[in-house]
From TrEMBL:
Any one GO cellular component localisation term in the record: plasma membrane
Protein name, UniProt field: Major facilitator superfamily (MFS) profile domain-containing protein
Stretches that traverse the bilayer: 22-46, 52-73, 85-103, 109-128, 148-168, 174-193, 217-244, 250-269, 281-300, 306-327, 347-366
Keywords, alphabetical: Cell membrane, Membrane, Transmembrane, Transmembrane helix, Transport
Annotated membrane topology: Multi-pass membrane protein
Keyword Secreted recorded: no
Cross-referenced InterPro entries: MFS, MFS_trans_sf, MFS_Transporters
Amino acid sequence: MVFSIESAHYFEYFFRRDVTKLYLAFAIRNFALGMVLLFEPVYLYLYFGKSIPMALVFFAVMFGGFGLLSPFGGKIMTKIGTTKTILISLFFYFAYYLALFFFPVSFWFVPLSIVFAIIAMTLFWPSFHVDFARFSSQKTRGSQVGSLNVMSIIPTAISPALGGWILASFGYPVLFVVVLVVLIASALPLFYCTETHEVYSDSYQDAWRRAFKKENWGLNIGFAASGLEGMVYMFFWPLFLFFVTANFDFMGGIVSGAFGISILFMLYIGRISIPKDRSWILQLGSLWTGISWVLKYFIVTPFDAFLAHTLYHISSTAASIPFQTLFYEKAAAKGKDADEFLVYREIVMNMARFVFLLVLAGVFFLFPLLPIRATFFAAAVFSLGFMFLGKTPRFSFF
């Protein structure tokens, strides 16, 4: 049975926040983006003439802009409320994919798409994280984060396979049209949500100072590691799958299958992620996530890719649930400064992505024959950095 008794606390959060509608919007949004995110790096790689450096620069500018503008997302959230901010972000996500659709028409849609993506992320992510940190229950936050992952991953588990089938059968234009239609549908429930307001008080300078405070260096490592491992997963893993399978159907099926197998494991990790166990689970999950990245280096066939990716999802679940739980706990513990803490996290994570992607763009420009699977070793190292969000790693599980 997918839904555990612990999930009742999660639904209590949603009903208390009038977010049956908010969650419906989020689930539909995940379904829309899940159909295209796996194939987006391949689209950019092919558009830029099979140039990995150009595609990396595209994403570097996007995430760098998000990192720079994150404090303004907090200010906007204060002015108009979290729900309206999320609602507006969906229209900018729509504009981003519409711009991708028109890439073949004019190169000017490339910088325009980056601008739309930066605005969309700047509006969406601070508001979403603030909302969950404020209204999730302290005693059951582990199970709620587990449920949040499951509930958000169910549509995401289905959508890569569907997106792969649409892409293989009809091509990128039809896929973008379907994504745009579903994104419009995701905005509709938000028109009926009750608004809430948060107060983000940091100046732009104060937001950046948090990243350089000595007491935050451990958090900086944890946040940066999460962002960098995620970039290898988001950019290099889809390209690698494309090179291995050369078939969009297989790509979507591999990712959807691995997602589906990991769903029940997510709920289990959420239930056992109680305070005394979180650091231990985080350490173990981080180590196994790193090992799973190393194993991905040796993939030869699509079936190898499925097995390795399934192991990765199970391992990363054991790391991500306690990681996110600790993250939201630290944010909630800040009290009135929770908003500022969450924006600081976006700055650190996305500026790390910006630097990392630019460095890799230079590396692949100088060494064009470098196999992209070599980046999996970097992801393995970054996985170990997850541990720094909890207690200092001691590897007590040996």
